[in-house]
Design a protein that fits this description.
CATH architecture: Orthogonal Bundle
GO molecular function: DNA-binding transcription factor activity
CATH topology: Arc Repressor Mutant, subunit A
Strand order of the largest sheet: 1-3-2
GO biological process, one term: response to stress
Number of helices: 6
Helix content: 55-70%
Protein name: Winged helix-turn-helix transcriptional regulator
InterPro entries: HTH_MarR-typ, MarR/SlyA-like, WH-like_DNA-bd_sf, WH_DNA-bd_sf
Order of helices and strands: HHEHHEEHH
Shape: globular
CATH class: Mainly Alpha
CATH superfamily: Winged helix-like DNA-binding domain superfamily/Winged helix DNA-binding domain
Structural class: mainly alpha
Pfam family, one: MarR_2
Length: about 150
């Protein structure tokens, strides 16, 4: 039978991981907001929209890619539409469906934000790691992601 609790080493590693997530995402969010007026969620949406080959993406597919619930995505996109970063249009063949696309303003915003964001990620995250540690981190993350796909929720 598996122990119901994490051992000391697992507990320390898990708590450190949670603290890294909390501090890293808070720092990235503050910097994006201060430098570019974007939230980290805005940035995530804009990146997702620039990574697709089609000009428009079904909202449903964007929600799956971001792993956001429908209501969260809808509310966030409404704010982004109001700011001119994205456009939303109804789907002609599905009354409940909608498409979203990045606007020229959204494209300009992501192009302006990306270099500084990448520099900050490199500075606070990667610059303190060796190439070996980066490869190990990647392998660890891939293993966990694979398990998330195969272990039942």
């Amino acid at each position: 039978m598996t122990e119901p609790w994490l051992d000391d080493e697992q507990q320390q590693a898990w708590r450190a991981w949670l603290e890294v997530n909390t501090q890293l995402f808070a720092r990235l969010s503050r910097e994006l907001q201060a430098a570019n007026g974007l939230s980290l969620q805005d940035y995530d949406v804009l990146v997702a929209l620039t990574e697709v080959s089609e000009p428009s993406v079904r909202m449903r597919d964007l929600g799956v890619k971001l792993e956001w619930e429908k209501s969260r995505l809808s509310k966030h996109l409404a704010r982004m539409v109001a700011r001119g970063l994205v456009a939303r249009r109804d789907c002609d063949d599905d009354r409940r469906g909608a498409f979203v696309e990045i606007t020229d303003e959204g494209l300009a915003a992501i192009r302006a934000a990306a270099p500084g964001h990448a520099a900050l990620v490199r500075e606070v995250f990667f610059d303190g790691l060796s190439r070996t540690q980066v490869r190990e981190l990647h392998a660890i993350c891939r293993t966990v992601l694979d398990r998330l796909e195969t272990v039942e929720a």
